[in-house]
Every structure is written in C-alpha cells, then in structure tokens.
Inverse folding.
C-alpha cells in the first residue's frame, strides 16, 4: 500500500465495473495499490446484453492471472468459423495455448473478474454516479451521487452493505480511469469529443434465443443486399442472434451508442428477428423463448487522446465499433492489461521516466483501437455489401483468403489479437523483437512463461549462470532447454521489453535499468 491511503486519497479510482474496469482494478489492487471502483448500475442488475466472444490473446492475458482455465470451463470452444460465402477458417492455425474463440456470456467474464477484484482488496461502490471531476498536479477529485452499495469482498463477513450516503460525495485519487462504456460520464465530464460515424446506417436488432433446429457447431453468418444475420451458440442451449436490414428503424440518437434495455427506442419483436434471419440465412432455425432483445446502433468512434492529465480512458469509453469480429470486450481488456502495470510502476516509484511510461499507454493502445475500428467496420461492410459487382468482388476475395495460408494467418492474427505489436522503445534500433507478443515458452522447473507472469511483475529469462540485476523488481527464470542462449525481458502484460541472442550480466542490468528502478520485489528462481 502506498502513502495515499494514509492521506485519505486512494491510489486509483476506476469508473465502470464492466470487464475492462474489473480487470484493471484487480491488477492494481494485486500490485498493492488502494483502488476504488465506481459503477452507476446496481450490483443486482443483470447484464445479458453484451459481449460473448473471448479471443486467444485475451485468454492468454487471463492465463497470466490464473483465470483462463476457469473461464474456458463456462463456455464453448469454437475452433473454426464460417464468416460468409461458405468459407471456413480453422483457428487451429493459431500458435497459442488457446487456438479457438471462447463463446461465453459476458456476465461469466464479469463474475470471474469481480471475484478476483474483491479478493485483492478493491472497494466497489455500485449505484454511484460521477457528476463532476477536477484535477491538479497531484490529485484527481471526483464528485459522486447516488445511494451506493458498498462491496468490500470476501474478507468482510457482512458482505455487501447498503450504506445511505449524502446526495454528493467526493473521492480523491492519484489517478482515475474512465472505463464506463460508450456513454461515459467521465469522458463527458472531461469535455472530450468522441468523433466518428455510424458503421451501419440503420440499427441492428439483437436477441438471446433458443433454437428448435440449431445450425452446425460453428458461427453462422450471411448477408444479402438487404439483410444480414449472425448466430452464435453460448453452449448452454442459448444463441445470440444479431440481425440487420435496410428498413430497420434507427435508434433516436445514433451518437449515444448501443441501446440498453429500458431505453425509449422502438421495441424489438421476435417476429422481426425471425423475419430478418430468414431473409439472410434462409431459415430462422426455429427461434423461440427469447430471454432478452434490444436494438444496437453500430458506430465507429474513438477519442483523440487516451490520457488527459491524471485521467485515462479505456474500453468502450475510448473506442466503440461494430460487433463484427467480437473485438470490443477483448480490446478493452487488453487496454486494461497495458495500463495497469504502468500505473503500478509509477505509483510504486519504480519507473525511470514516469511521464513517458504513462504517455506510452496512448502511444501503444490508440493505434490498436483505430485498427480495430477499421477491421470491424470492414467486416460488417463486407458482409452487408450490395450490388452484383460488389458481391462478385467479395466472392473473389473470400475465395483467395480460403486458399492462401499466409492470408489466413494474417486474418486470424488480427482477429485473435495475437498479431498485436507495439512500437519499440525510443532509441532501440530495428529490427528488434521489443514490443512483440511473447509466446508462452517453457521455463525450467516445468513452469510456463504465462504462469511466471502471474507474479504481476517483469519476468527475466536467461540461460543458467546469469546474475539477477540487483534490486530489480522482477522475477528471474531460466530456460527449460539447456541449449537456449537468448536473454529476454518480458513486460507484465506479456510483451517483450528487450531481447538479445547473447548478453552479459552488465548488458542485462542495463536493459533492466531502462525499464525499472531498484525496488523491493526482486526474486531469483534457479531450479
């Protein structure tokens, strides 16, 4: 715990208890920081309406927190997809421990991340709305209102308590993170623009339904000149249906983003979902018993800056796009993984250049968000392309993709997140592996790299005989294979900070010093 708690100032306040906010808060608290998580919806509010796909890179990041296997057990693995035109892509081509896309309702991901956040000491305030923000050189001050439900975790024998509070309350923090979604109140309070456009001119309809005649065990999608439909199985008998056609009514405010249950929009009728699905797929597969239906305005928007002073934006508060590819939640979770270790390093005084490290969050993640907007937009427009010439061009392009292995690999790396790479640090000569994803390599003692990353700090991997840099807050492991000569320094988010085919003790110490100041967390593991 830093000195912030003694001054009645929390280290970080996170706004938004969706997957992005929960992962970020849990990471920060696990690093020994004081964290308050503010969520405007009640704790008991159901959340059936959001994401359902967890991609390989996100599962790797969850594996680095000891959560992946449990999440996988809640859903269904899809190892091949048929995006359109009868083309099949095999996810077994992915070079990952998780060569599939996991289909599981977002509430399963949130349940797991909330449990972890509470176990690490995050203080969650539900039913609490942000009404104002101020910041100066040292602190962020948030004004809140509402009847907050405090959740302090399993260490509190009383569990969640309803604590009446004054109409307003003030929270002081060293830093704040807006992870409160497309309608972010914190982003609006900062006065940040959210420029973009509608990815689909008309809104989509969404529903969770049961099917009398289910399709094959793959994702099912198809589009015509007038309609598009997408079906995905949750694995428990429920299917998510996403459908669109030209004459579907708009939501009242396209800039507002996805519609939520209870919003004043045109209601969705199951007959409408059935009709659009039949038009796009040729059958509605016997849809019945919907448990949830809504409209979704598919926009492409991104804030120009992910950092404003001591405040950061992540997830849908920073970027929103079409649901094509299932990239939204995954991108937000990867935002959180990138930001959490940087905030922890700065607040613990372990960053040689704190401002540069915090600025690197925008430098690394903003281009990723921009690319996700382009990719998801291209996917939805490809499926919905109209006119015989354009449809013929789509057929030709998908035919090439189906036959050419390297093209498939690039497409799968993009969608799965495994292909994400960050710019190397300033001053590093190219070519370099710095900034690339670290594969899950075997370490001595039967350990994997992503198991070693569960300590939440940098991981240094070398051949036997190399010294641990004195005082460096990292863990030091050696390779399982005795013939490996490389030395690598891996960031807490699983990306390479530095590598060398051969390196002396002094070169290792210099590379470590570029990233870390001496701390108290160094350990050495030499099985």
């Amino acid at each position: 715990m830093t000195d912030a708690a003694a001054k009645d100032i929390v280290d970080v306040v996170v706004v938004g208890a969706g997957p992005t906010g929960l992962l970020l808060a849990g990471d920060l608290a696990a690093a020994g920081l004081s964290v308050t998580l503010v969520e405007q919806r009640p704790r008991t509010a159901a959340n059936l309406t959001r994401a359902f796909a967890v991609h390989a890179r996100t599962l790797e990041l969850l594996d680095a927190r000891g959560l992946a296997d449990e999440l996988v057990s809640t859903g269904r693995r899809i190892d091949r997809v048929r995006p359109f035109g009868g083309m099949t892509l095999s996810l077994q081509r992915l070079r990952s421990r998780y060569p599939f896309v996991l289909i599981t309702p977002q509430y399963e991901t949130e349940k797991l991340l909330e449990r972890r956040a509470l176990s690490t000491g995050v203080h969650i305030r539900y039913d609490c709305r942000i009404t104002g923000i101020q910041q100066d050189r040292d602190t962020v001050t948030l004004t809140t209102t509402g009847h907050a439900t405090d959740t302090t975790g399993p260490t509190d024998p009383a569990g969640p308590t309803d604590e009446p509070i004054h109409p307003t309350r003030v929270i002081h923090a060293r830093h704040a993170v807006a992870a409160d979604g497309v309608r972010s109140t914190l982003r609006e309070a900062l006065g940040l623009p959210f420029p973009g456009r509608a990815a689909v001119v008309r809104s989509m309809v969404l529903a969770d339904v049961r099917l009398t005649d289910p399709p094959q065990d793959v994702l099912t999608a198809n589009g015509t000149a007038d309609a598009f439909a997408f079906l995905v199985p949750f694995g428990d008998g429920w299917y998510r249906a996403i459908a669109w056609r030209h004459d579907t009514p708009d939501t009242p405010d396209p800039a507002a983003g996805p519609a939520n249950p209870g919003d004043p929009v045109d209601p969705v009728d199951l007959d409408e979902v059935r009709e659009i699905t039949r038009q796009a797929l040729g059958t509605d597969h016997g849809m019945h018993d919907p448990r949830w239906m809504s409209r979704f305005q598919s926009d492409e928007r991104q804030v120009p800056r992910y950092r404003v002073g001591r405040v950061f934006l992540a997830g849908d508060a920073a970027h929103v796009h079409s649901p094509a590819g299932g990239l939204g939640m995954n991108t937000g979770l990867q935002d959180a993984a990138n930001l959490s270790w940087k905030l922890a390093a700065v607040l613990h005084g372990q960053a040689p250049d704190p401002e540069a490290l915090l600025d690197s969050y925008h430098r690394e993640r903003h281009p990723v968000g921009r690319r996700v907007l382009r990719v998801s937009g291209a996917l939805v427009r490809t499926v919905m392309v109209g006119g015989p010439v354009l449809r013929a061009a789509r057929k030709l392009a998908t035919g090439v993709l189906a036959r050419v292995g390297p093209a498939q690999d690039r497409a799968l790396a993009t969608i799965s997140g495994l292909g994400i790479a960050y710019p190397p640090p300033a001053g590093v000569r190219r070519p370099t592996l710095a900034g690339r994803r670290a594969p899950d390599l075997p370490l001595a003692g039967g350990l994997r790299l992503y198991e070693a990353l569960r300590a939440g700090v940098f991981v240094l991997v070398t051949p036997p005989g190399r010294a641990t840099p004195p005082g460096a807050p990292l863990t030091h492991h050696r390779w399982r294979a005795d013939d490996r000569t490389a030395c690598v320094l891996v960031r807490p988010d699983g990306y390479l900070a530095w590598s060398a085919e051969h390196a002396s003790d002094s070169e290792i110490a210099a590379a470590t010093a570029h990233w870390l100041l001496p701390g108290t967390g160094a350990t050495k593991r030499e099985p």
